[in-house]
């Protein structure tokens, strides 16, 4: 074993702003793990980092954009998605990933994410769900489980949380998955799928926040949190996302919930509109061109509601 | 065939003229949310931008609109959004993001009567201070104020040029009356339109490029996403590398430069219009937008009465022509300010008028001035 | 025959070798969260006595050949939130082979 040489280069260093490490995240925080999985996915696919863009909002996860050596944008609270939409619309050749937290994407930014999914904007969203607002001191989030303690729910949370994968599926996302930060291999594989897939891809990653959330909810130790995830997670693909709720001390589903065939993306349609052929086409022809191969919303819902039988996956080895 | 500049003589309203101005200036991305009285601008962009090879997106709200526009600017496009009071309020946080990240963009605000929902279909000029101070923190702002459809066209082009030159958001402060006013608009030959493009990062600098290292002119060259510069852009206070730096020194250095890059070019930015009475007057009426047209009539009426009045029209309201008004105060007997609010440019004029009295003709919105209302103040100023 | 001995025999009979890894720790990046130690499938990582610049105890590798060795699965590399540990896959010869009781040149940190 070789330790502590300053000359050592981590295989992911080529994607990192190493002059900014160590990062701001607390010991055992899951965000670093998910960033590691994202970078491993990029590396496995051999993607050109000149063409990768990371957009973050505000919060602990929002800081991720500051550590990657690619074009990276740390925007305002909740607004990573519209920033990504504008950027991607004007440069569709870029592979744009929004990397942000549950509060940023689903509370203050909730309006944007459902509309981005509805439009089938060709962006990847990696949402780290740590059940609370970590950076500001552990306040209630729209993902905080009922009865959990946070600094703004000192008597226990009285609000039911969002089921993020269900919400994204019904909003029109073409790829929806959920993992936890212990499922590093499957998460990496899932990120690879999202990076390669056109259209709106959403991956929720449950991650421990030992300092702000864990401390108040008997999950102070990140190791214990990950053990809890490992024990409670049922790995299964194509479970109905509407049934994939997360409740305290109950088993929950992880896996791929939605993976629809390729469709016309929002950007495809935006650029279609600028073509001479489209602008000059008669109304009927234009309608056909707009519809392209995009499913009607109703058809989309039918696919969701009649998903194939859930498939068992793995169960061998570490199961991660 | 790309149809960008519609050279010729047209009859159009101010909203549509501003949209055509944007397209003539090279705007290739518009994100907006419909709001009266600016919706005609969005509708016109929706029809015209695809013809000009650009992208129109109707976003889910005004916050998304301004942020999508900022994102598109980082993809290298000239960008615009348009709104009115309530939407302008929603945009304020990210107006600051554009200032902090030095993102060229144009925000049109067709002002209506406020606060809150106010009188959506009727005129107001109550967002002047908001354009200057609406986002939190210290900064300098640039805002132009057209008073005719022709100027909506011309000043929107100018707004793009200023935004690109100074890498900052520029506000086009229209008002409902100008936005909905139909008049003749002459769109010149494409070659006659002066276009300024942002200063781009030198490709040879890849690997060494610092996104916030300003040149001697205080403006850093901009890198576009996807070209291999690997920039990090943040709304946090940052150093030349673009990295967050949470120190008073970094804040002082960065914000001073953001202010100075506009302050030192004030004379170049500020645009005032005078009438023929400029050198033979002792009472100066200061006005802008639709109110300046009522003021012009009032000045004429005052002249008929033998009062030596003159109109100074602000085609740019920000930066405020402080030096000019101070100078004018030396020879002026009094000032009159006419605007449709409770005294916003009034405060600026009072600040610069020294001991000279400043009379105010204000309206709360919903209608424009009768020239007689302004005349009354001119008469008071003249001691009549 | 114990199951361990069976595995060793099986590997020998078929001239097979476990994949082997060389572990590197960038100690000053470590925040001592212990995830690499806890979730190493071969349990070859341990908390060291040393302190790094930030005052955390970085992990160290202690192998017990022939079976309790780093097999280059890279789980530690992927789960480490701090980009502080990584693994290079190497041949068995490079890290001391499969022989029972062979010296573990890869161990001990």
Description:
- The complex is a heterotrimer of chains A (320), B (384) and C (109).
- Chain A is built from 11 helices and 12 strands.
- Chain A is 33% helix and 17% strand.
- In chain A, the strands form 2 sheets. Chain A has a 9-stranded mixed sheet with strand order 3-2-4-5-9-8-11-10-12, with helices on both faces. Chain A has a two-stranded antiparallel sheet with strand order 6-7.
- In chain A, helix 6 links the parallel strand 8 (175-180) and strand 9.
- Chain A folds into 2 domains: 13-263, 3-Layer(aba) Sandwich (Rossmann fold); 266-305, no CATH class.
- In chain A, helix 1 crosses helix 6 (184-196) and helix 3 (102-108) crosses helix 4 (110-119).
- Chain B has 13 helices and 16 strands.
- In chain B, helix 10 links the parallel strand 12 and strand 13 (309-314).
- In chain B, the strands form 3 sheets. In chain B, strands 2, 3, 4, 5, 6, 7, 8 and 14 form an 8-stranded mixed sheet that branches. Chain B has a 5-stranded mixed sheet with strand order 11-13-12-15-16, with helices on both faces. In chain B, strands 1-9 form a two-stranded antiparallel ribbon.
- Chain B folds into 2 domains: 8-192, Rossmann fold, CATH 3.40.50.970; 272-381, Rossmann fold, CATH 3.40.50.920.
- Chain B has helices spanning 14-25, 39-51, 62-74, 85-101, 128-133, 149-166, 176-180, 248-263, 266-269, 289-304, 322-331, 345-352, 371-381, and strands at 8-13, 27-32, 55-58, 78-83, 105-113, 119-123, 142-144, 169-175, 182-187, 232-234, 272-274, 283-287, 309-314, 316-318, 334-339, 358-362.
- Chain C has a single domain, classed as Alpha-Beta Plaits.
- Chain C has helices at residues 3-13, 35-39, 75-79, and strands at 20-25, 45-47, 59-61, 85-90.
- The termini of chain C are far apart.
- Chain C is elongated and about 50 Å long.
- Chains in contact: A-B, A-C.
- The interface between A and B is large, with 42 and 46 residues.
């Amino acid at each position: 074993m070789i330790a502590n040489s300053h000359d050592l280069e981590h295989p992911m260093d080529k994607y990192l702003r190493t002059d900014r490490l160590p990062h701001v995240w607390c010991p055992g925080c899951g965000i670093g793990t998910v960033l590691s999985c994202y970078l491993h996915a990029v590396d496995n696919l051999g993607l050109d980092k000149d063409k990768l863009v990371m957009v973050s909002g505000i919060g602990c996860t929002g800081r991720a954009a500051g550590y990657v050596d690619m074009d990276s944008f740390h925007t305002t609270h909740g607004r990573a998605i519209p920033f990504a939409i504008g950027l991607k619309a004007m440069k569709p050749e870029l592979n744009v990933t929004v990397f942000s937290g549950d509060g940023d994407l689903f509370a203050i930014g909730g309006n944007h994410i459902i509309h981005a999914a509805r439009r089938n904007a060709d962006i990847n969203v990696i949402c780290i769900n740590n059940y609370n607002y970590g950076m500001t001191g552990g306040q209630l989030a729209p993902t905080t489980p009922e009865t959990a303690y946070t600094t703004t729910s000192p008597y226990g949370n009285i609000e039911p949380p969002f089921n993020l994968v269900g919400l994204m599926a019904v909003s029109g996302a073409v790829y929806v998955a959920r993992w936890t930060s212990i499922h590093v291999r499957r998460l990496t594989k899932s990120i690879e799928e999202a990076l390669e897939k056109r259209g709106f891809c959403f991956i929720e990653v449950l991650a421990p926040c030992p300092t702000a959330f864990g401390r108040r909810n008997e999950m102070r130790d990140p190791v214990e949190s990950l053990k809890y995830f490992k024990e409670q997670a049922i790995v299964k693909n194509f479970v109905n996302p509407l049934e994939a709720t997360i409740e305290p001390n109950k088993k929950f589903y992880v896996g791929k919930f939605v993976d629809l065939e390729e469709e016309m993306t929002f950007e495809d349609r935006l650029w279609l509109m600028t073509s001479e052929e489209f602008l000059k086409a008669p109304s009927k022809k234009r309608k056909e061109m707009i519809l392209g191969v995009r499913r009607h919303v109703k058809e989309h819902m039918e696919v969701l509601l009649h998903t194939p039988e859930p498939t068992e996956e793995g169960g061998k080895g570490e199961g991660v | 065939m790309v149809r960008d500049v519609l050279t010729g003589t047209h009859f159009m309203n101010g909203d549509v003229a501003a949209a055509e101005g944007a397209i003539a200036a090279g705007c290739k991305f518009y994100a907006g949310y419909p709001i009266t009285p600016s919706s005609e601008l969005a509708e016109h962009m929706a029809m015209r931008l695809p013809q000009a090879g650009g992208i129109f997106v109707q976003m889910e709200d005004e916050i998304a609109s301004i942020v999508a526009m900022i994102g598109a600017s980082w993809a290298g496009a000239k960008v615009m959004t348009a709104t009115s009071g309530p939407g302008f309020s929603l945009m304020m946080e990210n107006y600051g993001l554009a200032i902090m990240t030095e993102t060229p963009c144009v925000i049109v605000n067709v002002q209506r009567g406020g606060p809150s929902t106010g009188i959506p279909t009727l005129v107001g000029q109550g967002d002047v201070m908001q354009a200057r101070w609406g986002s939190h923190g210290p900064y300098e702002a640039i805002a132009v104020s057209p008073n005719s459809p022709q100027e909506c066209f011309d000043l929107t082009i100018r707004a793009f040029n200023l935004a690109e030159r100074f890498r900052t958001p520029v506000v086009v402060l229209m008002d409902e009356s100008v936005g909905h006013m139909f008049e003749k608009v002459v769109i010149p030959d494409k070659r006659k339109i002066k276009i300024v493009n942002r200063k781009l990062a030198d490709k040879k600098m890849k690997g060494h490029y610092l996104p916030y290292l300003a040149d001697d002119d205080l403006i850093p060259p901009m890198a576009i996403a996807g070209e291999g510069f690997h920039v990090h852009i943040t709304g946090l206070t940052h150093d030349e590398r673009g990295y967050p730096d949470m120190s008073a020194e970094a804040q002082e250095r960065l914000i001073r430069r953001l202010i100075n890059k506009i302050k030192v070019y004030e004379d170049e930015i500020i645009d005032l219009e005078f009438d023929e009475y400029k050198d033979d007057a002792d009472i100066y009426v200061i006005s802008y937008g639709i109110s300046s047209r009522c003021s012009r009539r009032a000045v004429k009426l005052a002249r008929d009465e033998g009062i030596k009045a003159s109109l100074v029209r602000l085609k740019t309201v920000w930066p405020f022509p402080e030096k000019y008004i101070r100078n004018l105060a030396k020879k002026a007997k009094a000032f009159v300010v006419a605007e449709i609010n409770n005294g916003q440019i009034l405060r600026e004029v009072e600040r610069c008028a020294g001991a000279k009295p400043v009379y105010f003709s204000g309206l709360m919105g919903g209608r424009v001035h009768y020239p007689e209302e302004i005349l009354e103040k001119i008469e008071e100023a003249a001691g009549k | 025959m114990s199951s361990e001995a069976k595995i060793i025999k099986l590997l020998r009979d078929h001239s097979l070798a476990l994949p082997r890894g060389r572990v590197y720790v960038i100690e000053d990046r470590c925040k001592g969260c212990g995830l690499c130690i806890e979730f190493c499938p071969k349990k070859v990582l341990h908390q060291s006595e040393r302190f790094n610049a930030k005052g955390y105890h970085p992990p160290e590798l202690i192998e017990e050949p022939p079976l309790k060795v780093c097999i280059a699965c890279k789980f530690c590399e992927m789960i480490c939130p701090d980009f502080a540990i990584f693994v290079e896959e190497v041949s068995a010869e490079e890290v001391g082979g499969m022989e029972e009781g062979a010296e573990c040149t890869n161990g001990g940190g």
